[in-house]
Amino acid sequence: MSAEQADQTDRTDRTDQIDQAGQTGQTGQTSQPDCDRPATNSQAADGPAAPGEASSDTGHAAVAALVRVLAAAPVERHWLDRTSWVDVSRGWLPGADEVYQRVRDTTPWRDGAMWRYEKYVIPPRLTSWHPAGRPPPFPELGAAHLALRRRYGIEFDGYGLSYYRDGADSVAMHRDKELRWLDNTVIAILTLGTRRPWTMKPVRLAPGRRILNDQDDAAGLFDLAPGPGDLLVLGGRAQRDWLHGVPRVSGHIGGRISVQWRWTSRTGRPLEGPGYMAARHFSR
Fold it and tell me: Which residues of 170-246 form beta strands (DSSP E)?
């Protein structure tokens, strides 16, 4: 057996394992936090606090407590192949249904229109972006940000939101090419709202085809189906060697919000060509 055949067999075995355990989170290696530094309350005062300060202190203490809970939550690590992995934590964020309603109703959503050749195209979902360094509009997501930073020992530049309003909203199989350096990345995805398919498959060019994200090529495809409060974290070369997407769902289905944090080590060979959001023009 060649090395390429052995690697393909290894991928198939591990993908089958994930597909069987995807919705239970009972198979895989438990990943422990890289560190468990106690969170500090920067607003603590030495003397008696005014009513407004006491309320602020209580809010900061609640966020700090949630950070500790999330950073210590059990995570199942599944190896996609020898260099790519996905961490799965079911029910990672407590109270996810209430957070979903608040984020859905108060976020300034935009349609993210993109120029595609002769016209603007509106993706079938809404988006929003919250840069780091500003007060987080949702304390729970601020706590999630700090907990992920603590667990994985990396810095994120903020977080993005994608709102899939119903089953017609979707995103095709893709890689996060805007990161450019895909050899060592960490992509964390928190689900709020309805459970729906969230699929992955290895990057491969199907026989007789010319595109990597061929929707008719289901070789190696599996579904992690995250539900409310579930956390998925893709790492290693998962953005270089694997595709992921949110397919359409027929029939009536509720909304889903995806919260995403992205990081790249900026090592290895950078990806060439335009990113997903770049304008497309006809060649002259």
Answer: 171-174, 185-193, 199-202, 222-223, 231-236, 242-246
The tokens for 173 are 């199989």
The DSSP-derived string for 109-145 is -B---EEETTEEE--SSEEEEEETTS--SSHHHHHHH
User: In order of start, what are the domains of the chain with their CATH numbers?
Assistant: 3-29+49-264 (2.60.120.590)
Mean pLDDT, residues 28-38 taken together: 38
- What is the spatial distance between Cα 229 and Cα 211, in angstroms, rounded to a whole number? 34
Per 3-state DSSP, what percentage of the chain is helix, strand, and coil (rounded to 5)? 25, 25, 50
Helix axes 139-152, 96-106, angle to 10 degrees: 120
Measured on CA atoms in the order 204, 26, 260, 162, is the torsion positive or negative? positive
Kind and range of the H or E element at 15? helix 3-21
| Residue pair 57/44 in contact by the 8 Å Cβ criterion | yes
pTM over 0.85: no
Helix (H) or strand (E) holding 158: strand 158-164
Task: Evaluate if residue 252 carries a pLDDT over 80.
Answer: yes
* pLDDT over threshold 50, residue 120: yes
In the chain, how long is the greatest CA-to-CA distance? 74
Q: What is the arithmetic mean of pLDDT over 191-195?
A: 98
| HSE-CB of 189 using CA atoms within 13 angstroms | 24
Cα separation, 273 vs 250, in Å, equals 34
